[in-house]
Amino acid sequence: MKNENIKSSKYFLKDDIRQQTDFRHTDQNIGVPAPPIEKPSLADAKKIALTAPEALKIGDLSVKTAILQRESRRRFNNQAISLDELSFLLWSTQGVRQWRQKNALRTVPSAGNRHALETYLAVFNVDGLEPGIYRYLPSQHQLVLESTPPQLKAKTIEAALNQQFAGSGAVTFIWTAIPYRMEWRYGQASYKVIALDAGHVCQNLYLACQAIGAGTCAIAAYDQPAADQLLNIDGDDEFVIYMAPVGKV
Fold it and tell me: How many CA atoms lie within 13 A of 87 on its CB side?
C-alpha cells in the first residue's frame, strides 16, 4: 500500500482541484476589489531609483547562448555587481514591460496575471548600496530599504539551512508569496500556480545572470521560520518561497 502522506503530497501537482473549486464564490467573482500588485512602502522609507530598462547598456546576449551556458553555480568571486547590473536582474525577473488600465504586464508569465510574488534582496556587495534587506518595487522600478540587520550574511546562511554559498555572492534574491493575490481569483486552485510562477521568475534570473557574467543557484531547501524572520514577515499572509544567491564567476 502506498504511503498516504506521499499520495496526498503528490496530489498538489495535479489539477483536479480546478474541477472541485466553485469559482463563483472567489472574491473576484463576488465583487471584492483586487489586491494591490505590490506591497506598499512607507512614505518616509529610503528608496533607490534604478536605471530604466531602456537605458541599460548591458544584457545583450542571445537567448540561445544564455540557455547553452546556463548552469547552477555555487562559487562566486569577490567582485561587486553594479547597480545597473542589479537593475537588469530585477527587471528581468519581475519588471514591468507594459502598463494597462488595471494591471501591468511583467517580464515573466503568471497565472491570470496575478503575480503573487515579492522580490527581496539580501545585499552584501552591490556598488552604491549599503548592506541590508531591500525590496523591489516593480511599479516604480525602485528599491526600498527594509532593514539593516546585523550579521546579515550569517543570518542569510542560517535561513538557507547553513548552505554557505547563500551568503557568499554579491546579493541573494529571496522571493516571498502573498497567496491572497492569487486566491482572489482562483481560490483553492491557487497554490500550484504560485509555485509554477516562482519557477518562471528564477529561470529568468539564471538567463539574465549569464548576460552579465554572473551566476546563481536556486535554493528551495531553507529554514522557513528563519527565512521569514530575516525579512520581518508574518509567515502566514506572506512567506518565503524561494531563494537564489547571485555573484560574479
Answer: 20
pLDDT band at 12, cuts 50/70/90? Answer: confident
Would you state the torsion angle of the CA atoms of residues 166, 170, 176, 181, taken in this order, to the nearest 10 degrees?
-160
127 to 27, 84, 112, 145: CA distances (angstroms) = 43, 9, 36, 15
pLDDT of 1 over the 60 cut: no
pLDDT in tens, 50-86: 999 999 999 889 999 999 999 999 999 999 999 999 9
Give CA–CA dist 202/182, Å, rounded: 19
E strand map for the chain = 47-49, 96-99, 104-106, 117-123, 132-137, 142-147, 171-177, 214-216, 239-248
Question: Among all chains, which residue has been given the C-alpha cell 500550484?
Answer: 192
Q: Is the pLDDT of residue 5 over 80?
A: no
Place of cell 542569510: 156
Q: How far apart are alpha carbons 209 and 120 in whole angstroms?
A: 17
Is residue 161 within 8 A of residue 221, CB to CB? The reply is yes
What is d(CA 105, CA 223) in angstroms, rounded to the nearest whole number? 32
Cell readout for 245 is 544567491
pTM assigned to the model: 0.95
